[in-house]
């Protein structure tokens, strides 16, 4: 396991310039983290190249985007997309004609989750087939990159992929119980994780969230070789999550969200960066704060640790934080004050039930009923303090976080020396109160 290594000094200015290239390895979604990388690359005048997960036909075949889908995706990205499907994972694979995971789970009922199993070797074979497909397509993407990018250009290969929940209807009610269940609906994460279904998720998360980074590092050897000869640089970055340093009880400390079952895969992601560093490759996992995106929508309560970012900013830069504070106030329901909202979040984060249970070394921790119920009740209470639950203070703060982390990641990738770095709330506060990030508070 890597040591906790927060970014305490803002990175020196990167040397990226027009003609250098940011490659997003993972499709861009409207409010996703990758928007921050995109914004920073464009600010520096870099060229952006996107990729796609591709789409599945109704018969299950993976295909590139149609002309219409491609035009839409390129319009969202504002740049060209290499139209080779980079979907990772193995839920749709039929090794030697055996029914796929998705087919097998089609008729499964959520309350039968404990009795589901797979014959020995099946998951390994399905996984190997998924890996082979992904790596073959990734190789084609790399060939295309070598064609499109001159050897003299500096390149950031930015891995943004995370996921791997197998596509079967049966998972949603089950995972809702694990991640959002209280009372009778509560399902502790530990027995779930230790079941055959949990182990399927483990293998699938590892493949999509972690091992795709290793495949990317391996497949980009040709780009690095060219760069070495031409005197240019290639950096590999990935988004991690391994807890965040936030304000709790008046001082900054590491904390996390429970149960974060993807955490096992996120640690494996860090291990891949460690292994790459040992070979002299510039690969860094940037562990980022919890924010609201398409991917985090499943996890109610993940957003609670975001609220104290506003307090952090108000403390470091009271004047600069005024416009953001006003925007947040405008989202509150009548009769609700920002102070009471912040106090509710702070009380939760500082509560012994939550705070004392967390430990970096034993992360990711499994859930307990009391912790889940306090988390879900606090999350609901804070949501209710908004005028419109579709316009959240956490969305406002999320935007600031993805923009700030994007800037930090691009700048740091130039000469990064660590396999894993934490971008904490104090790092973000330091950036936006420095001239290098003052515009981010706009
Ligand atoms: N949202 C958070 O709170 C948070 C916190 C820390 C780190 N992160 C990380 O940031 C990164 C981006 O996530 P996000 O939260 O912006 O959400 P997002 O939904 O915008 O991005 C998820 C990405 O994963 C890709 N993906 C999903 N399933 C895939 C599959 N089977 N094969 C290939 N690609 C697949 C998507 O195409 C997309 O690029 C992820 O690595 C995520 O773990 C998120």
Explain this structure to me?
- Helix 7 (196-219) packs parallel to helix 9 and helix 10 crosses helix 16 (425-432).
- The longest helix has 27 residues, at 122-148.
- The protein contains 16 helices and eleven strands.
- The chain has one domain (21-300, 403-441): 3-Layer(aba) Sandwich (Rossmann fold), CATH 3.40.50.
- The protein is 45% helix and 12% strand.
- By secondary structure, the chain is α/β, with parallel strands linked by helices.
- Bound molecules: nicotinamide-adenine-dinucleotide.
- Nicotinamide-adenine-dinucleotide is lined by residues 26-27, 29, 32-33, 53, 86-89, 160-163, 208, 239, 241, 288, 290-291, 293-296, 302.
- InterPro entries: FabMG.
- It holds the Pfam family FabMG.
List keywords for this structure.
442 residues; two-stranded antiparallel ribbon; FabMG; 7-stranded parallel β-sheet; Rossmann fold; globular; binds nicotinamide-adenine-dinucleotide
Largest sheet: 7 strands, parallel
Q: Which range best describes the helical content: under 10%, 10-25%, 25-40%, 40-55%, 55-70% or over 70%?
A: 40-55%
Outline, from the CA principal axes?
globular
Query: Could you name the CATH homologous superfamily?
Result: NAD(P)-binding Rossmann-like Domain
Main sheet: which strands, in order across?
5-2-1-6-7-10-11
List ligands, each type once. nicotinamide-adenine-dinucleotide
Distance between the termini: 38 Å
């Amino acid at each position: 396991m890597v040591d906790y290594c927060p970014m305490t000094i803002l990175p020196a200015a990167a040397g990226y310039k027009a003609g250098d290239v940011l490659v997003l390895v993972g499709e861009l979604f409207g409010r996703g983290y990758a928007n921050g990388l995109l914004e920073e690359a464009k600010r520096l005048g870099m060229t952006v190249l996107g990729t796609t997960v591709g789409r599945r036909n109704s018969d299950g075949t993976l295909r590139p985007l149609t002309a219409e889908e491609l035009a839409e995706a390129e319009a969202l990205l504002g740049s060209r997309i290499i139209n080779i499907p980079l979907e990772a994972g193995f839920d749709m694979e039929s090794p030697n004609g055996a029914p796929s995971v998705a087919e097998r789970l089609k008729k499964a009922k959520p309350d039968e989750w404990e009795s589901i199993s797979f014959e020995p070797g099946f998951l390994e074979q399905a996984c190997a087939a998924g890996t082979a497909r992904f790596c073959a397509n990734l190789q084609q993407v790399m060939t295309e990159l070598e064609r499109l990018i001159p050897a003299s250009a500096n390149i950031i290969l930015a891995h943004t992929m995370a996921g791997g929940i197998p596509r079967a209807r049966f998972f949603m009610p089950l995972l809702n119980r694990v991640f959002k269940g209280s009372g009778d609906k509560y399902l502790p994460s530990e027995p779930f994780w230790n079941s055959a279904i949990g182990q399927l998720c483990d293998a699938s998360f590892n493949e999509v969230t972690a091992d795709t980074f290793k495949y990317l590092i391996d497949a980009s050897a040709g780009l690095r070789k060219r760069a070495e000869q031409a005197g240019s640089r290639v950096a590999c970055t990935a988004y991690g999550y391994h807890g965040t340093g936030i304000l709790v009880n008046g001082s900054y400390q590491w904390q996390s969200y429970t149960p974060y079952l993807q955490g096992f895969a996120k640690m494996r992601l860090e291990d891949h960066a460690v292994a790459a560093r040992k070979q002299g490759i510039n690969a860094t996992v940037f562990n980022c704060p919890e924010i609201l995106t398409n991917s985090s929508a499943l996890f109610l309560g993940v957003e609670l640790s975001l609220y104290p970012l506003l307090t952090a900013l108000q403390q470091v830069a009271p004047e600069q934080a005024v416009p953001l504070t006003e925007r947040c106030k405008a989202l509150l329901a009548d009769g609700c004050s920002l102070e009471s909202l912040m106090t509710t979040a702070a009380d939760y984060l500082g509560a012994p039930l939550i705070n004392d249970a967390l430990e970096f070394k034993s992360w990711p921790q499994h859930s307990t009923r009391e912790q889940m119920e306090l988390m879900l009740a606090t999350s609901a209470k804070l949501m209710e303090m908004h005028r419109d639950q579709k316009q959240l203070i956490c969305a406002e703060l999320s935007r600031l976080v993805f923009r700030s982390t994007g800037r930090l990641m691009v700048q740091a990738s130039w000469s990064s020396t660590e396999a894993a770095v934490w971008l904490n709330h104090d790092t973000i506060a330091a950036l936006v109160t420095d001239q290098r990030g003052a515009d981010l508070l706009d």
